[in-house]
């Protein structure tokens, strides 16, 4: 599936497993005249070792992160006066309007799923998430790290590109309650929707469960924030965050994934009471 915006079609994916050897590849951006889905790679060097500094369940996210992004919605799913910061069907190309900063971090490929379970953990508070990540020699992701893992250097509004497609990710569900008016649990296994994958190969960063992060800057009351949205019809984009909830808040849709510093010992952690 191609990522489309402003006359370009690209898609970059790939997860290197620790200990593997393969040719490293660079993605060539093609003009819109190229056949849909046609991707050209140029070899950087055959048979180069690709030993990852991250554990097997994590992905290395490395590159230059744009600190301030301008994104323009070309088509809303609802009329503009209803949409606000809501669901955008198609974005124009993203524009970096702030400095770029180097970033290098390991992030869980999937949302945290307890051992023996098939569904990602929910009803997790920010404090729960920080404690569980710390127990696994990891930490909660900073908001900027989460953003970059979701959007890549192209600053994609959605991890899958510039266009919203509920067939890719677990969002835009309208069957939110059962016949008794109780919320329905519509989580899916993290690997169930293989198309919901970011340019770095991180899965289900939008939809499924809301994910706790640590805010880089906390101008308000909380250092905690939720990213990605859940299965309801919501924003479900890479950049927006829900910042109204404190560290003890938990609900049926709140989950998380963890990060880890690939080059630092001991690993930095956010402590929770």
Give an account of the 3D structure.
It is a single chain. By secondary structure, the chain is mainly β. It has a single domain, classed as paralog of FGE (formylglycine-generating enzyme) (Alpha-Beta Complex). 8% of the residues lie in helices and 27% in strands. It has three helices and 17 strands. It has helices spanning 80-83, 126-135, 143-151; strands spanning 3-5, 8-10, 21-28, 30-31, 40-49, 58-66, 69-70, 73-76, 88-91, 95-96, 100-108, 139-140, 210-214, 224-227, 241-242, 254-255, 258-260. The strands form six sheets. Strands 6-11-17-12 form a four-stranded antiparallel β-sheet, sandwiched between helices. It has a four-stranded mixed β-sheet with strand order 15-14-13-16, with no helix packed on it. A three-stranded antiparallel β-sheet has the order 1-2-4, with no helix packed on it. 34% of the residues are buried. Residues 6-48 have low confidence and may be disordered.
State the gist of this model.
Helix content is 8%, strand content 27%. The protein is mostly beta strands.
List keywords for this structure.
273 residues; mainly beta; paralog of FGE (formylglycine-generating enzyme); four-stranded antiparallel sheet; four-stranded mixed sheet; 8% helix
Describe the secondary-structure layout.
Elements: E1 3-5, E2 8-10, E3 21-28, E4 30-31, E5 40-49, E6 58-66, E7 69-70, E8 73-76, H1 80-83, E9 88-91, E10 95-96, E11 100-108, H2 126-135, E12 139-140, H3 143-151, E13 210-214, E14 224-227, E15 241-242, E16 254-255, E17 258-260
Parallel strand pairs: 13-16
Antiparallel strand pairs: 1-2, 2-4, 3-5, 6-11, 7-10, 8-9, 11-17, 12-17, 13-14, 14-15
